[in-house]
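Chapter review: from sequence to fold.
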Amino acid sequence: MAGFSVECAIKAAICRKAGKRFFDPDSEAGKYKIHGLRLLIERGGLWNILRDNEGIRFTLLFLDEWTVAWRYNQAAPKPEWTEQFLDRAEDFNQWLSEKF
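The token string follows.
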């Protein structure tokens, strides 16, 4: 669920950047009907805010390994990795909410 929270935070930032409360389903919404976090950042024109923050860029690259298919993965990741993912998702969401 943490990956979905990052996805939603990015989509909310894209809307705020565009001065909208939601995506217009008849216009640009199609290009945001994806789950790839880095691709959302790029398509939403948010990459430039990451340029000067190496730590956040690294965090995004780490989080970008997330996929929707993880919901169906029978093998549980190591607890240490899960904790790190959750921490980084929280850090990224907090940082993004402060920017927008």
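Two observations follow directly from the output. The two ends are 22 Å apart (CA to CA). Helices lie at 2-18, 37-43, 47-50, 54-63, 79-99.
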